[in-house]
Amino acid sequence: MDFREGSKEAIDYFYDENGNLKKDLNKNISEIAYNLLNLPKQITFNIENIKNKYLYAADGRKLKVTHQKGASSKVTDYVGNMIYEDNTLKRILVDGGYIEEEKYHFYVQDLEGYRFESSKSLFRIKSLH
User: Fold this and answer.
1) Are 42 and 52 in contact (CB under 8 A)?
2) How far is 51 from 118, CA to CA, in rounded Å?
3) Cα–chain-centroid distance for residue 22?
4) Which of 37, 1, 42 is nearest to 23 (CA)?
5) Residues of the chain whose pLDDT is less than 50?
6) Contact call for residues 63 and 55 (beta carbons, < 8 A)
7) So what's the pLDDT on residue 107?
8) Stated pTM of the model
C-alpha cells in the first residue's frame, strides 16, 4: 500500500498538548476532538461534510460510531465480538479473523512475520424434513 500525498503544505500534521493528532491534511481531516480518555470523539473531514462521531464505554471500549455524510448517516454498533451496521449484523470477530457474509476470513503469518488474509466460504446445513 502506497502513501498518498494529499497536501502540498509544508506541515501536514498538527497535534494537541497531549500528543494527539488534531489535523491530518493528507487525509483531509480538518479536526479531531478527543474525550477525557484521549480517545477520538469526533473526526471532521474537509470534504463532503463528513463527520464520524465515536461513543465509548467508561473502560475505553468502542460502542458506537456514527458516520455522517451531509444529511445521511450510518451507525455502526460494537456489541461484544459482533459488529452491526444500521441494526444489521455485519461482522463477527473470532480468534484469528472474522466472519462476514457467510465467509470466514482469517489471518495467516509466514515465517518472516508477514501477515496475509485468506477466506473460506461457510456452508449451511439445511434440514431435509
Assistant:
1) yes
2) 32
3) 18
4) 42
5) 125-126, 129
6) yes
7) 79
8) 0.77
* Confidence at residue 122, expressed as pLDDT on a 0 to 100 scale: 60
What does the pLDDT read at residue 105? 85
- The owner of cell 448517516 is 73
Give which of 107, 108, 106 is closest to 122, Cα–Cα: 106
Three-class DSSP category at 112: coil
What are the DSSP E strand ranges found in 1-129?
Answer: 13-15, 21-24, 29-34, 40-45, 50-56, 62-69, 72-79, 82-85, 88-94, 97-100, 103-109, 115-121
What is the reported pLDDT for 111? Answer: 79
- Spatial separation of the C-alpha atoms in residues 105 and 126, rounded to whole Å: 23
Q: Pick from 37, 68, 53, 5: which is nearest to 13 by CA? A: 5
Q: 43-73: string of b/e by CB count within 10 Å (b at 16+)?
A: bbbeeeebbbbbebeeeeeeeebeebeeeee
pLDDT of the residue at 123: 55
Cβ distance 32 to 41 under 8 Å?
Answer: no
